[in-house]
Structure formats: structure tokens, C-alpha cells
Amino acid sequence: xxxxxxxxxxxxxxxxxxxxxxxxxxxxxxxxxxxxxxxxxxxxxxxxxxxxxxxxxxxxxxxxxxxxxxxxxxxxxxxxxxxxxxxxxxxxxxxxxxxxxxxxxxxxxxxxxxxxxxxxxxxxxxxxxxxxxxxxxxxxxxxxxxxxxxxxxxxxxxxxxxxxxxxxx
Length: 169
What we know:
Layout: E1 10-17, E2 27-33, E3 36-43, E4 51-59, E5 63-75, H1 81-92, H2 94-102, E6 109-121, E7 128-135, H3 140-154
Antiparallel strand pairs: 1-2, 1-7, 2-3, 3-4, 5-6, 6-7
Helix pairs in contact: 1-2
């Protein structure tokens, strides 16, 4: 018997944009609590407990979508940071530019980077806002679990996915 996969109701990452940030060295945690998405900015301190800087609450009913934008990157010698940024911007806009420029380097490595995107209604349905959070490759599976948790518990849009993120029909 294998272990049952546990659902992920929280995820963290570095803020790209979409919220005011008190400290440039902080990270953001996203957790579901009841019918709210709690967003907490935390500052990690060496040998001390993380310090909470500020907390935001978002009603789950205001969430339009939570998605991951990923790009499998093959980083090769002498790749152009500028060229990758332009290509990323053409494909995915400002977020793609960030992913593209971060993928250039001088060694050959297979890695995956991503951005967790929260879209939600602000004051009304015409006021659409977005939060972008940077994900490391190792956290992408947890982000997928987080999205699955949201879909299962807060929407009627749940579609079962395999380990690659493909929707099972």
C-alpha cells in the first residue's frame, strides 16, 4: 500500500507584484482559512522565529482563478539574457519576461521555474486585480496541490489531473 497524497492548503513564494511589500527580503504565505485566503508577509530571521509583517484577507468568492505559468528551461552556455527576456515577454507578457531573463546562465541545467498567478475581483467585477508569486521548480508540485485544494473545496471546476498536470478525461 502506498501513502495517500495529502492535499496542500498552503503555499509560499517570493512576491513579484500585486501587493504592497514591507520588506524586500520577505516572502509571502497563502493559506485557506474558512472562506478566506489569508496572505501573510513574513520575514525569515536566522536563529529566530519568522516575523509576520502584515496579513491580507481575500474572500474566496472574489477569486477568479489561481493558475501556474511554467516554462521548462534548458539553460545552455552563452545564452542571451536579453533574448530570453524578449521571447518570454512576447509569449507571456511581463511575467514571461521575468521567467525568460531568469533562465539565462552559463551552465547546462534542466530546471523548471514558474509563477503562481492569483486573479480576483477588487471593488467590483470590472476591477480585476492580479498577484504574481515566483515559484522555484521544487515548489511547483506543491503549488499544483494548492490549486487542486482550491478547486475541490471552493469551486465546481475541479478536474482530476495526473502527476504532469494533464487533465484526466
